[in-house]
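Lab notebook, bench 4. Still working through the backlog of constructs that have no structural model yet. Next entry is a single chain of 168 residues. Request: give me the structure tokens for it.
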Amino acid sequence: MIKNNKLLLGIVTLFIVLFITFYFRTKTNDARIVHIDLDKVYTDFTLSKNYNQEVEKFHQTSQLILDSMELELKMLTQYNSNPSLIESKKEVYFQKRNDFEQIYQQKTQEYSKKVMTQLHQYLKEYGDANNYDYILAKQLNSPVLYTNDSKDITKEILVYVNNRYSGN
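Model written out:
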């Protein structure tokens, strides 16, 4: 999940930086620019935490099922059961494991997209309400190489997005 999120965040950040670069060539230096630690905002956003809990529950449940199936296979093998039955159970086990892995990947991608969509909406609202021209995403491996810490509004954004999400 983290790998997919970082890729998505990297792509979004690259797009933002390219847009900002183009915009700066056409606008004077009176722009109001701030930045956030997008990794922290993403991680600490309540919606993201909720989705991560759902994915973790799914992972734990699927792991219990797979462990049970694996134990059954070991017992069948240990007691020299019918080889065709063992082979059949192995096929079912491997298919189930692949199915769980696919579902896990689908869920993490779907949830990541939903979280980023919601964050984008809240960031736009916050930027509009506070008359910001840009809210940059500072994160590891982003094209934003330097930002002044005095322009960091990560804490304010976290409070805002979590309040908005909870309906406050």
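Notes after review: The first strand starts at residue 33 and ends at 37. Helices lie at 2-26, 38-44, 46-78, 83-129, 154-166. Flag for follow-up if needed.
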